[in-house]
Amino acid sequence: MNTKSISLTLEIWRQKDSKSKGDFETYSLENISTGMSFLEMLDVLNETLTGRGLDPVAFDHDCREGICGMCGAVINGIAHGPEPETTLCQLHMRHFNDGDTLVIEPFRSRAFPIHKDLVTDRSALDRIIQAGGYVSVNTGGTPDGNTIPIPSATAELSMDAAACIGCGACIASCPNGAAMLFTGAKISQLSLLPQGQPERKQRAMAMVTTMDKEGFGNCTNERECEAVCPKGISITNIARMNREFVKAAMLG
Amino acid sequence: MELKSNVPDGPLAEKWDKHRFSSKLVNPANRRKHKVIVVGTGLAGASASATLAEQGYEVSTFCIQDSPRRAHSIAAQGGINAAKNYQNDGDSVQRLFYDTIKGGDFRSREANVYRLAQVSNNIIDQCVAQGVPFAREYGGTLANRSFGGAQVSRTFYARGQTGQQLLLGAYSALSRQIKTGKVSIHSRQEMMELVLVDGKARGIVTRNIITGKLETHAADAVILATGGYGNAYFLSTNAMASNVTAAWRAHKKGAGFANPCFVQIHPTCIPVHGSFQSKLTLMSESLRNDGRVWVPATPGDTRKPASIPEEERDYYLESKYPSFGNLVPRDVASRNAKEQCDAGKGVGTTNLAVYLDFADAIRRDGKDTILKKYGNLFQMYEKITDSNPLYEPMMIYPAVHYTMGGLWVDYNLMTTIPGLFAIGECNFSDHGANRLGASALMQGLADGYFIVGTSIANYIGSTTLDEVSSDNPAFSDATREVENRIKRLLKSSEGGPEGKLTVDEIHKELGLLLWDYCGMARKREGLEKALLLLPKIQKKFWNRVYIPGKGKELNQSLERAGRLADFLEFAEIMFIDALEREESCGCHLREESQTEENEAKRDDASFSHVAVWEYQGDGARAKLHREELVFQNVTPSQRSYK
Amino acid sequence: MWFIRFIQSSIGKKWVMACSGFFLILFLCSHAAGNATLFSSVALFQAYANQLHSHPLIVSVFSKGLFLVFAIHIVTGSLLFLQNRKARSQGYRIHKRAIKNSQASATMIYSGIILLLFVLLHTYAVSFGNHGTIGATITRLFSSFFVSMFYIISFIGLAIHLSHGFWSMLQTFGINHPTYNSLIQRLSYIIPLFFLLIFGSIPLLFLFGTGQ
Taking the model in full, what pTM does it have? Predict the structure, then answer.
């Protein structure tokens, strides 16, 4: 791997806490190895800020291998940055050029209040799942795993939807702040599988209703969500949710 | 400290059944009067929370992340084992039991491992019923693959994201209980202290990560599902927030810590590429099925891999282990990679990597076949390193991956503190000195879904539990302790950052010390040296760490500092445990204990036991207790891969 | 009541947009068919208009229904626009689209406003501003370069609006399937171009003096 050093100007949203008014601050960073991940670049910034007695930039992150869905920010207007199907932690600095200015903003949505700097509250997504994103089975007493055969293609389709990591980039990038891709993915996963059938209608109704209540916007089919999704989840899942919801609403 | 394993009598296959029958029950109507705290929402914690709530207990569940769905179980790639024998290839509960106990190098408890194999099948059924989209055959039945060198195909998987899918299954069950109100979820909360009342675990003190406020929570029992301590090494495949704090707090309150030196180091990780590296990424072990491991034969050879002719390459695994070759177990592969690098033959910019070359496999099977098998892994590798394994050999290096050691638990998964249970990676119980691939997911879910419920009922049903609320002075005492600890952490920062060190700088130093002296190979001399060096790092930490900001706010530096403070204390028992275990076994080689062919030599006569450490107060060395391991159903054998 | 709840939900509002849009496309089809008579002669067009207006009941039901559908489409569209602006109380400093060719979807409200303006002026011109026969009126209207250009620009706006609207309608109805997606993709170009061609060539016809 050939790495080189680049210099960057960062304009980062700084906000002390949920009540304070935030603003952008500018930092310049030198000697950033192109082999670093974006979050490692922020680590370096934070080490520098700490050394100078300044408050480091708070940002969410955990697994740093693109699966936990904890990290995320909007880089120069694109959620998770310019690389397709890549979370922020898997975005490497070689995709940027020497002298670039990066504007780093938190995921913004009415439903995602900011805690501090780039750290937002995405618990609205949890509440959508709590509304019905499950099959109501208790532990124990379940039939043998092979009792109901599921066509391989169906399982794969369900898996495509289930791959959602719940990062919230779809909402951050949607011009309307809609959570349709997130909700559609969970409704799709379960409505495709035989195990999800008994609660199919209640699930679609309950999850969509909760989604609306949480303050997300309305979908106008702009496809931005699909374009930034780090797991490449397709808006076919939104189409499926539309069908599920309409069937549930009209045929109860 | 008394170590009573509470393993029931009788034949191995009947123990669990017998135990369930003899365990006390709690009347369904009374369960709602009992509160259980679960710390952690990985596979073990989420499944336990959901199951206990379904049974009727009031559950309070805590997680450090912003959502219970993000616990690090989510990153497990490969799969989950179960003895379903769907492939009709001779698998059975007995065989899964035997493979697991043998894989653990005969350092785990027979009865626990057998129970794990028994409930493994229920886990698959449970997950299927929850809507986990496992891979299927064309006929619609569940697909299996062979994993980690197992002779049978018993691994169930959902692409390379099995951990994610299983966790989302458990998370959905948990979410359902949150909706019913049986579980109250406390996310972005870090457990800071365990609270004992009359010697029993009765609650915890947590820090709200967003506000920095301390909270107290009382309960009738506390379950820790807080994962492993691999991040003691700074660099590991663990998530950034994974830590030992909850387990260490419990240890300091009297819970025995078992086998802390048992750490699994995974051979196929993407190598470190600079001092700024924050974490390591695992590449699936399956790559070794077709990749050939080699280094340049002459130390210091800096030519590009393609320009090193065949005769100047050292395929060290193939020459050293002719029958297993590149497929030697994890520990052997890891150790040999480090040996080669120590001998100056390492490659890459840091010289800490070996090649994993697919050129021969591509010549033999064609590019398409190889891409079909490993396409997604190659993609993942390229995303991180910007190099395509089709044209350039992959570079790999071992990395800390899993910790077999953990809080000591009995057959009920209860620690030496009554009312404190430890489940999942947080306990020591099932993997002995080495964990087999696809077994971690199995153990986490077995503990949470199928075992701890019985234990909680038995504990509550057989114990007199006085009413305890968080007004009890024990809670204010514990809160004060935590407050003082935070004050002490922030003390060295008062004079500003001049001449100070950041938390990560000190953590990297600790990590290097552990990696060098308590890594894949250990020796007395090194461990003794490490024990002399450790206090210096501890001192440096307390005197010179600089933490910006205050305690009562979102302060990520403070969070990391608190975790590092505990790692620094904890490292000591890792070193003394490693020092005490004068045998090679499982994942580690003790250099003094080798065969004539320089292979690991286990010493059953002296070390067929679990080493359990009891806290003796600050500054005092922990006291060693031994739980002797009795093998009535299997005969310990020496491994040989020559 | 379930229907009220349904149309208040986010997906319900999408449905209202899609259904009303569907009826408007049907209207465009019939309007285009009627107007196509102009390609033959103004006289034939006049005959078609006379025939149509000899059934006042049909015209009345049709025009009121059309008005209603228009109103629903406009009101719901504006409501969505306003609600969606509120869903992100603080905007981004840098606006960038991650997908290419997003101009049509990003400007639905603006192309919609152009169309509304057009519909108002057009309706005024051909009904209230109508002195004499409809045939004479359009001949007079399109003899003006500016009027013709206004019509053509509006039809380009219609094509842009439809290029997103048609696909979007199908997506809302849940019609998104790998087997049909390439067809849908093609239709979402063909249909707007079809209307642009039919409607747009009429002012051109008059402008260049070939219409009579």
Answer: 0.97
